Amino acid sequence: MASPAKIIPTNNRQKIKIPDTTPEIVKKYAPGTDEQALLTKVRYNRLIDIFSGLTCYSIQNHLRTTVENIGQIEIDEIYVGVSKKGAHYVIPCQAKSPGDKFGIVQVMQDIEFCKQRYPHALCKPIALQFLSEIDLAILELVVEDDDNVFRLSVVDEKHYQLTNKDGISDLEITSYCQQE
Questions:
Q1: Is 34 helix (H, G, I), strand (E, B) or coil?
Q2: Do 52 and 89 touch, CB atoms closer than 8 A?
Q3: What is the pLDDT of residues 42-60, one digit of tens each?
């Protein structure tokens, strides 16, 4: 049995300013806040690496596949990552437009896909969502099993603001360093 859990980013998180390294030509031709623009900005700004603390590489996007005992699924983007101690991770990412919610069924499908396709890697499901054209939320999700009642929970959540190099003050940088 699964609860009808839906998750949305919280609205009281600190926005961590990150220099926007999205190429200008990409910004010109991929503007907006749709899922494609979100995945593009996350990839160019290495936000999965920053959020997870892992070195990550995109290996597939918009994967449509079949998972045994589930059927057809779609994953927006898949990263693989390695930790500083050599552990391997597979990171299925689901991107949502502003206002959409993340559901437990999709996360459960992503986890099952990872178990079947990458049995020796740790699965870290990630949710991505624009909050505005320059602000985005990244959430690591987990499905908790309490006597066959499944619940979708947030393991970690960070909000990032993509800005130009002059948009981050020395005081903000010092503040970030003190939080390490």
A1: coil
A2: yes
A3: 999 999 999 999 999 999 9
The H or E element that residue 79 is part of is: strand 71-82
pTM higher than the cut 0.90: yes
Place of tokens 């002059």: 166
Please state the separation of Cα 97 from the chain's center in Å: 13
How far is the C-alpha of 68 from the C-alpha of 89, rounded, in Å? 21
Nearest of 82, 78, 108 to residue 93 by alpha carbon: 78
Do 67 and 113 form a contact (C-beta atoms < 8 A)?
yes
How many Cβ atoms from other residues are within 10 Å of residue 18's Cβ? 18
Are the C-beta atoms of 93 and 126 separated by less than 8 Å?
yes
Classify 172 in phi/psi space as left (phi over 0), alpha (psi -120 to 50) or beta: alpha
Please report, for the chain, the start and end positions of each structural domain, with discontinuous segments joined by +: 14-179
Report angle CA 138, 140, 146 to the nearest 5 degrees: 145
